[in-house]
Give the backbone structure.
Amino acid sequence: MPRISMTLTEQLSDARSNEVAFRVNIENAGTEPVHLLALTPRLPEGVALIEVKDFSAELDKVRHERLCTDLTEILDRRLTLNSAEHRQAITEAMYLVMKDIFTRPRTLLAIYGKLLFVGTKGSGKLIVSKIYHRLGVLSYKISDSSDAKVAMAKWFTNPSDVLDALFTAKAEQLERLERDMGADEAAKALAVIEPDSFAATTYVLQFPRSYLNPRKFSFTVEATISAGEDKPTQLRAVSTTITVSPKPYVLSVVAVLAALLGTSIRFSLPSTQEQPIGTYFSSLMRYLFTSPGLTAAVMALVVFNVYEFLEIGRKITMGVGWRSALLVGALCGLFSDRMIKALQVLVGN
């Protein structure tokens, strides 16, 4: 009887990177070998699968999907270039989508509001879903070599044409790949896991970033497992949560501006006598844009981008975001002199 356990482990990665690698480990602690029939990563919206490592069969499936996508896109281009009726149908479909969106004031205001204050995520998803719905009936989707042969017979009849030759070559690649992948259960299995053994693969994912706050994503991997042809398949799943840091350049700007604020506080603290407001701000501007302010800004830029490796990083537990950038920048503005002395001691001067 199979006893299967699954683990999902994040590999060593940069906390500020938007690319993260996860290793999936499937262990068979039972007494019979099992076939791992499928391993399916469930990606959150906006997350891209960059690379799959280890399982050769999994790589074959990824290649199969990419070839089918390539063939579908070549076919769409062929129809668009050669058929005036197809171009007219696409134009009419796009017109109906735009008309449907822009003739509804509430929908239009919602889109503009999301573009201005939230970003393109919600509005873009609305528009794209409508376009896909309209254009889906005008596209012939290729999912295997049989579909490719049908398309080749109907729309690709000129071997001397570049698109025809490219489509034919990719269709032949797809057919060879399907032939190599096999048809029976053992051939279709990603791996045969023997008793007291395991199989593993690694997924490299790319996550979208926000501008100021970290974003959390849930990543799930599902495994389809069978102990034999006459036995039912089992579905197992394992999940993890990933926190992705915001855009680095935005946080660096926040840290530099916070350093100038901290420098302003340092300038204001010794001031005990009243002075004209014009004189005060003139002195403050001179202070900010000369050695004290520029030193604090450069120090904030450097320290914020490496602070998790320093002693201060152990004390700041809020993670990489605008708040940590604000705190590090303000501290650099207030205590830049002490930090420079600490660095001098660190390097031995």
